[in-house]
Design brief:
With 428 residues, the chain is an alpha/beta fold. It has three domains: 205 residues, 3-Layer(aba) Sandwich (Rossmann fold); 78 residues, N-(1-d-carboxylethyl)-l-norvaline Dehydrogenase, domain 2 (Orthogonal Bundle), CATH 1.10.1040.10; 132 residues, Rossmann fold, CATH 3.40.50. The protein is 38% helix and 13% strand. The protein is built from 14 helices and 13 strands. The strands form three sheets. It has a six-stranded parallel β-sheet with strand order 3-2-1-4-5-6, with helices on both faces. A five-stranded parallel β-sheet has the order 10-9-11-12-13, covered by helices on one side. A two-stranded parallel ribbon has the order 7-8. α6 links the parallel β7 and β8.
């Protein structure tokens, strides 16, 4: 590393979304932070102390901004930084191929403001090799600087779980890495200076990239196993969750639960590893099969609902159905890659009328992203339905009187095992 390492870091965050904002707040404990996002609406909201994700309250955000945190949509403000952290989305396209558009664009942005001796750390989830083989060349091309001579790079995968109040960025161990030994230890020390939980210095950037992919791929495969077992047990009339509870009494059993797999991590990251495997000519049969099981679960859910309604002599064509929950996880407003929409789409081919209620989701955002008009909760509470699907386990639904929403002959599908045994007709 060069002399700049001895200078106190001025942190530049590129991307102030669900993951970028927590990173900015973390570093603001000790350092000056310039939080850049090209979305001016997002920046204006943050300046007013508004976090749409609901993880940080207004008073906290405004207090940080009075001291060290400076949200901006002006790229030139990043030029005062010497330690850049890239935290932008890495989704997949309609063919489930990695979409590196955002991380490439962010690298170009960094290339326009970076100076000699600066450090760039990527937190966006990618397959092993993207940081050094894709991102670094973009910085070099735009800046004219030479990698590992004029600027240095690391990878520290984000471990943000939106709306999780127990496991936060402030108490979770952080993986770090660097493009050479001195850079790796420097990056590790910067993160370590603001993390009470400590850090884990990975052997290399590729190892750190692979670790994040492995974290979520493992969960995806295990949930797929539970989803497949759920289909088998349900066909036998056995409650899958009661089976899991019994099995969990064994000391080495991990109690993964069946359910929808959406969001920006578990439902996406394995495709990055599958793509890398294809590049290498390596089979990824188990990972690919797990993705297929989880991706096709909405179809299974709808088919089972339709069959049960037919068994109960409830005409599906004229049926009125209520879907409770639309976000990808409980008590979280994030609607990215929600699999509830897949249920809605498939159910639309059968049912006459479908109401979707989610008091946590932003109806404007839902309509913008999916073209779906949400039903106000007050409206739904005045109606009755032939079928109710509880898709997301929001705490607010615990106050719902489901019995008042269903007709004398109806089906209640409790996908999240949230309702009492005497109320739920179907479970996973």
């Amino acid at each position: 590393m060069r002399a700049r390492v001895k200078v106190k870091p001025v942190i530049g965050i590129v991307g102030m979304g669900y993951a970028g904002l927590p990173v900015a707040c973390l570093f603001s404990k000790k350092y000056t932070v310039i939080g850049y996002d090209m979305n001016r609406t997002r920046i204006n909201q943050l300046r007013e102390g508004v976090d749409k994700g609901g993880d940080f309250d207004k008073k906290y955000l405004l207090r940080l901004q009075r001291h060290r945190l400076h949200p901006t949509s002006n790229r030139e403000d990043l030029m005062q930084c010497n330690f850049y952290v890239v935290v932008v989305p890495t989704p997949v396209d309609e063919n489930n191929q990695p979409d590196l558009t955002y991380v490439i664009s962010a690298s170009q942005t960094v290339g326009q403001v970076i100076s000699k001796g600066d450090v760039v750390v990527y937190e966006s989830t990618v397959y092993p090799g993207v940081t050094e083989d894709v991102c670094v060349p973009e910085i070099e091309k735009v800046s004219g600087l030479k990698f590992n001579r004029d600027f240095f790079v690391g990878f520290s995968p984000e471990r943000i779980d939106p709306s999780n109040k127990q496991h936060t960025i402030f108490n979770t161990v952080k993986i770090t890495s660097g493009s050479d030994d001195r850079t790796a230890h420097y990056i590790d020390s910067v993160y370590g200076s603001v993390l009470s939980a400590g850090t884990c210095l990975a052997a290399s950037i590729k190892a750190a990239e692979a670790a994040k992919i492995l974290e979520n791929t493992q969960r995806d495969v295990n949930i797929a196993l539970m989803n497949e077992c759920s289909k088998i047990f349900s066909a036998m009339g056995i409650d899958t969750n009661k089976v899991i509870d019994a099995a969990a009494t064994k000391w080495n059993f991990n109690a993964y639960r069946p359910g929808l797999v959406g969001g920006h991590c578990i439902g996406v990251d394995p495709y990055y590893l599958i793509t890398k495997a294809q590049m290498l000519g390596v089979d990824s049969e188990l990972i690919s099969a797990a993705r297929h099981v989880n991706d096709t679960l909405p179809e299974h859910i709808v088919n089972r609902l339709v069959q049960t309604m037919a068994d109960e002599n409830i005409p599906i064509k004229d049926a009125s159905v209520l879907i409770l929950g639309f976000t990808f996880k409980e008590n979280c407003p994030d609607i990215r890659n929600t699999r509830v929409y897949d249920i809605y789409q498939r159910l639309s081919l059968h049912a006459g009328k479908i109401d979707v209620v989610d008091p946590i989701a932003d109806p404007t955002q839902v309509y913008k992203e999916y073209g779906l008009k949400m039903t106000p909760m007050t409206t739904a509470l005045k109606r009755t339905y032939d079928a109710v699907l509880l898709c997301v386990r929001h705490d607010v639904f615990s106050d719902f009187d489901i019995r008042s929403l269903i007709r004398e002959r109806s089906v209640v599908y409790d996908i999240k095992s949230f309702l009492s045994d005497d109320l739920a007709t179907l479970r996973m």
